[in-house]
């Protein structure tokens, strides 16, 4: 593993020298803080309906305007960050656990467990993700859980495949053979030798993945199977705001901008991390 | 080689079968019985309901229904649509069947060279301002949701400027906007991949060898480096194609293109399961065929792979 | 030139026998005609029947059919076609659609339905253009029922899948082609009895996405747009579109269903009153519907025969509502068990508003639940849904459509299970009362019982919004969607 | 006139923590037709020296002082295009890893002919003909068939032969060979080294042979340049180096090589390790490991001083008798 | 003297190639060797001749395809995974590449402790033992908390040796343990190994292609060519009077740091044959100066040519030119 050869102090030094990583990290931190402190930061109750102020443009009453039910857009954005990140992090955790476990098992065992896992991966890959999501949404009914389950279904094979290929090359490393020679049992080899050595490419992938998951949630919302009311989500806000793009652009714009900037943040962070963690990076 | 292809095709048949099985099974759990959808307001009428169930063979056991469906695939009709009384599924999907892959492949054919070009432009300027600018542009490219991009483009180019038709299918001008919207994310993705693969290849010993021979910088990049990045790039073509197929759902809806993506959404919402299953199967078929093509084309690009396929 | 407009989906069918849904109706209304039709105000006017009179004891009608009407095939329209159509609708295996349910009162309908007879016993062809239809019980509204009459010869001539090839109606347009997923195209019928249309045909483009349809209208790719409610705000706030906008209230009631069998507190009239009084309809119409609605006071809409214009609105009065709730034993909502306000995705915002009002004004523990449409309808039909707002569109322009289907005890569509014997008796009596004025009195009496009992909260009447390009004349938007486009001209 | 003259060359690399001087004041000459060996342990700067001569240091590295004269042209001052033209034609290079130095996706024939075409020396068909004869010359059987094969179809030794054919394609005046045989088996290594010697004589080409293997030096070199920690510590003829090494490092190094010729019971040890470029010691860079080091060695930078004709060393204690080292180590 | 490790007729065959078109690759062919307690047996040969594979078989990291393997008299040819893990108590390995043999994500102390932890030792015992072996290999105890990347190649190799020594094994296989090191560091490690051997009496199987190193360290040497052992002898006998022409060629090919040898080397022709497609008869015959007709047909058996000196050559008696 080439990525393995970076010390901790070097990491921060390289990190601070990578424009992408720093800008990305700043954006991600802001969004994450907004999500965590949504209850404090949101100026109003995001569900508060004010039928007399529907589509109120940005101004004193509502900093970023109000939506079709007169709810405060800024508050909904902040709470929306919460939902987006909740979905993203849940999906990531689930897919990482499943994907990494199965990927490691596949690579370690070779033989039939490998075939079984990789054929399953092939099948899932061959299903367009929207169809998977639609099917799951149809089964579970639309909602946060659906989005999480659907996106997890879509995402784990990628992680499993990546883990498998990383581990396949790792298991040729001498230190793995050394561990076997020392009498280390397989589960411990996976846990102590494989995992720490694949974690950084996984982190890179995860950080880029977060952006895509947030976007995927938005797309599912657009197709009507995303996270449901009363939970505000960016995707839902964009969907609701798009028809009114000309008469009242503030809703769609605010949500699109938040989504876009967050995507940019995670992507830059991921790209930056890739450069930072690659010892033969551009610099 | 023929043995290899036979084995691959066997694998494909298996995947297709599993795809049908999974979609069939999944649809059993979907709330919103197709018959209830047909009945709509009349869903209190038990006699009518029973009659309809019998008409569509839904009163039979699940294994029998599944066998029926497989049989209908074999005879090419793909079963009867629930939504369109008396119509075979093939009639409903045959119009859209080629539209979605056509769109996806067109987008791919544009995206790959463009993305590679941008990626190389960034890689050869690694660390410079131009590199940062290109990366930023690319990240923006993937960060704009396709439905937002589509809406904006329609407003600017079709309504304001009147240059292109808003929607529909059939003429070349109607293809432009959907293809552009579909192309943006893969361009960005391919460019970023190309950039990182290029940077990796630039470190390779054979690049140094080429320079030591006195080969011009431009040739070093385009001749010696590029071809070595194509193999890993090809690997991601499958994923990109999958993304394009998924993208077709939104793009076909917004641009009102009667392709498989729109048919899929309509049929799922209308609980027209035979159509849904057939569309799922077709998507799976397209996707796995592209992957097969990709695998076969490795050998064209990288001679090492050809030898492994033959002698080993 | 062709008139270009959109439909939100492919029609499920284009034949008059299985005809059973809205989009198909939009298309087929231009191809097929019924015994009677509507004018722009929603009044019943003679179409294929020039006149009709009840048979003895109100047990049937004699129709004098219009002379000189030609089918698209060129054949003359006559009594045999009416009989043929009715029999086809009832024959098992033909999957008779909407039209079939109006025919149950005809003598011998049961026998045809269960396959024991091929011909309808109750129909007598008096001569080529006179037909008598006998009933088992009085149904004074029979002439109003919209049943598309088809060309009796067509099936023999073209086989069972004739509908996708030829057209079998008498309307101003003939079916030309149906390009699945793209469009349905109609051609003008030169021999139309009402005079050949001025336009060459009608193109119905299949455009599921409302925003796309709107963009197409703006870009001039279509001439006419029947706007779904999601576009209302965009259209009504755009001054540039003001001259192109048509606004006509729909013949559709919207009510709040409170099923006391499922949610105990609704048994108390005070609770029902409190609920009704906590909705601010005026504010909702402005804020949520951008003005594209009217408040509804009773359970019959304007433009439908039997409408009562003098009903008092239920006031928006939060204080009174609170007081009523306290009187019912739930001061400040205390003691109210939680309840779900169920609906489908498109009606989400409206329900969120109601729920927010109930929570705010009454402190009622309400939660909005979004359900898949068919499941929701099944549950409502089954009387399982405690609390919902739903609509009901008139299938023919008579108040009885609403009253007998939504509130009449035995009706399968009595979704909130409100029941009152006196009301039911009035409805039954109305079916036998030929005299219109007499009958309308019965309607008003029944409606008053319903309203006074707060068996429902009348909500709003949806405003239909349509856009017509300048230069397109003669489009009429009735309370029942567009009238056929036979009189349309395009410059 | 020297073919190549490196004079006072220093090379720095830009890193995250500032610049690192990897080479300092490196000077040596290569006369036409001779084999000069550049030896030293890993990290001593051998490869950087060769890359600096080739002008292939990349973006991060730069010549911070000194001149590199090739046939009296100052290479560093040439415009990039001219420099590129010399590279590959007059100055050729082969590398350590034959496996990774050939482009895996092009036929070997093409890769050999490429330099000829690039430098405009002949057209495609002629280049192909010459490539085949080169392949024959370096001892690849059935060259006219194997011409169309890909690198992975050759063994390591054959790949290195192809690399040599590639480097020789334009008849260079100077061949730089950076550890050309380290990756190969002993028997194959011997074949390749003999081949290089033959070709070098045949074409009266000068060779700068980079290696860390004193055995290879003994078999090949006319003159030797010993590097330690980015500096040249000794230059000498091969004869002088093996019979009378001057610098303590050279002396220790020669003796710590286990030989298969005789049975040894113990190896003299040089304590410690080569310092990394970020952390070169003050004064004499070898002093922390040198048994002869004094305080002065830790403070004063020694210069390269002449000890005999053609022999110079960078040490402050050259005046000590040869036995002094033995005595110092015995303690 | 009973053998500590005894290999008889051991072969190792790999199936290589894509499914359906597989061929056998015989990496190790019919090898019989003994390793005695406290002795150092060197295995030499060129790249790909099967040295590493043989080492892995000895440690039972991979089961042999044929033949039997005894450790301390016990047959360990077909033991299960758990029993194999138990073997780590007695047998350890040191690898060539000090960079990839250490997990970059583990601290030095954890790396050295790994075999001890696997044996279920208590934490205190482990700590104490780690400290002791670090001292043995002369690594300052302060390094215990660092990660491998902070060390030079020689230091890393010491960590690897410490790991192998920690359990106090009776046999250590050193697979090219010094090949990647600089000459000066190589000398340090060789000296260290020699010292450890003297102090602990551990037996070493020392795999190398560097004959100089082998001569310095080994008691006995086995020469491998294309999977087979072609000559086994005491170190001195082998270096002074090689019996197999391949051994002789190997000795000749070594570039000695000795000007007097210049130009006097005899270089054998030809490439090393591929193990996928071995020549018939004696595997060396295509490169052998002595080869006769019999060599093309019959593989020569490994037989004693002198006391303790075995060679596999039809012409081993012939005086080498
Ligand atoms: N691109 C680079 N950036 C920074 N430092 C470098 C670079 N290339 C080489 N160095 C440093 O320069 C020094 C000399 O390296 P060089 O590769 O010349 O050593 P060498 O003598 O060839 O060693 P080896 O025998 O291992 O090939 C080393 O300390 C190395 O870390
Ligand atoms: N796991 C494996 N699968 C298939 N073939 C293998 C495997 N391991 C080794 N081989 C093959 O077995 C032969 C012997 O390999 P081995 O690694 O034992 O040689 P070696 O003598 O150690 O070489 P080196 O000096 O290069 O380390 C080689 O041809 C190698 O390609
Ligand atoms: Mg080097
Ligand atoms: Mg090996």
Automatic annotation (TrEMBL), chain A:
UniProtKB keywords: Cell membrane, Membrane, Peptide transport, Protein transport, Transmembrane, Transmembrane helix, Transport
Tell me the Gene Ontology biological-process terms attached to this UniProt entry.
peptide transport; protein transport; transmembrane transport
Give TM regions: 21-42, 85-110, 130-156, 202-227, 251-270
Q: Name all ABC transmembrane type-1 domain ranges.
A: 81-270
Task: Report the domain of life of the source organism.
Answer: Bacteria
Instruction: Kindly indicate whether the keyword Cell membrane belongs to this entry.
Output: yes
Q: Where in the cell is it found?
A: Cell membrane
GO CC, sorted alphabetically, is:
plasma membrane
Does Transmembrane helix count among this protein's keywords?
Answer: yes
Q: Which family does it belong to?
A: Belongs to the binding-protein-dependent transport system permease family.
Q: Spell out the protein name for this chain.
A: ABC transporter permease subunit
From TrEMBL, chain B:
GO BP field: transmembrane transport
Q: Where in the cell is it found?
A: Cell membrane
Q: Which PROSITE patterns match?
A: ABC_TM1
Q: Which residues form the ABC transmembrane type-1 domain?
A: 97-294
* GO CC entries: plasma membrane
Looking at the UniProt entry, the stretches that span the membrane are 12-30, 98-122, 134-157, 169-191, 233-255, 275-301
- InterPro entries for the chain: BPD_transp_1_N (IPR045621), MetI-like (IPR000515), MetI-like_sf (IPR035906)
Q: Record's Gene3D superfamilies?
A: MetI-like
Q: Which UniProt keywords apply?
A: Cell membrane, Membrane, Transmembrane, Transmembrane helix, Transport
Q: Which Pfam families match?
A: BPD_transp_1 (PF00528), BPD_transp_1_N (PF19300)
Superkingdom of the source species = Bacteria
How does this protein sit in the membrane? Multi-pass membrane protein
UniProt family annotation: Belongs to the binding-protein-dependent transport system permease family.
The name this protein goes by in its record: ABC transporter permease subunit
Q: Which organism does this record belong to?
A: Halovulum marinum
TrEMBL record, chain D:
In the record, biological process GO terms are: peptide transport; transmembrane transport
Q: Which GO terms describe its molecular function?
A: ATP binding; ATP hydrolysis activity
Residues covered by the ABC transporter domain: 6-254
**Keyword Nucleotide-binding, does the record have it?**
yes
Q: Which Pfam families match?
A: ABC_tran (PF00005), oligo_HPY (PF08352)
Q: Which GO terms describe its cellular component?
A: plasma membrane
- Record localization: Cell inner membrane
Q: Membrane spanning segments where?
A: none
Q: Does the keyword ATP-binding apply?
A: yes
* Major subcellular site: membrane
Record-linked CDD domains: ABC_NikE_OppD_transporters
Instruction: Keywords in alphabetical order, please.
Output: ATP-binding, Cell membrane, Membrane, Nucleotide-binding, Transport
Q: What is this protein called?
A: ATP-binding cassette domain-containing protein
What is the taxonomic lineage of the source species? Bacteria, Pseudomonadati, Pseudomonadota, Alphaproteobacteria, Rhodobacterales
UniProtKB/TrEMBL annotation, chain E:
Enumerate the spans annotated as ABC transporter domain.
5-251
- Name the family: Belongs to the ABC transporter superfamily.
Q: Major place of localization? A: membrane
This one is known as ATP-binding cassette domain-containing protein
NCBIfam families to which the protein is assigned, alphabetical: oligo_HPY
Superkingdom of the source species: Bacteria
PROSITE patterns with a match to the protein in the record: ABC_TRANSPORTER_1, ABC_TRANSPORTER_2
Q: Please report the record's description of how this protein sits within the membrane.
A: Peripheral membrane protein
A Gene Ontology biological process in which this protein takes part is: transmembrane transport
Iron: is it a keyword of this entry?
no
Which taxonomic lineage is given here?
Bacteria, Pseudomonadati, Pseudomonadota, Alphaproteobacteria, Rhodobacterales
> Has keyword Transport?
yes
- GO MF terms on file? ATP binding; ATP hydrolysis activity
Q: Which SUPFAM superfamilies match?
A: P-loop containing nucleoside triphosphate hydrolases
Please state where this protein is localized.
Answer: Cell inner membrane
Q: Which UniProt keywords apply?
A: ATP-binding, Nucleotide-binding, Transport
Q: What InterPro entries is this protein classified in?
A: AAA+_ATPase, ABC_transp_ATP-bind, ABC_transporter-like_ATP-bd, ABC_transporter-like_CS, Oligopep_ABC_C, P-loop_NTPase
* One Gene Ontology CC term in the entry: plasma membrane
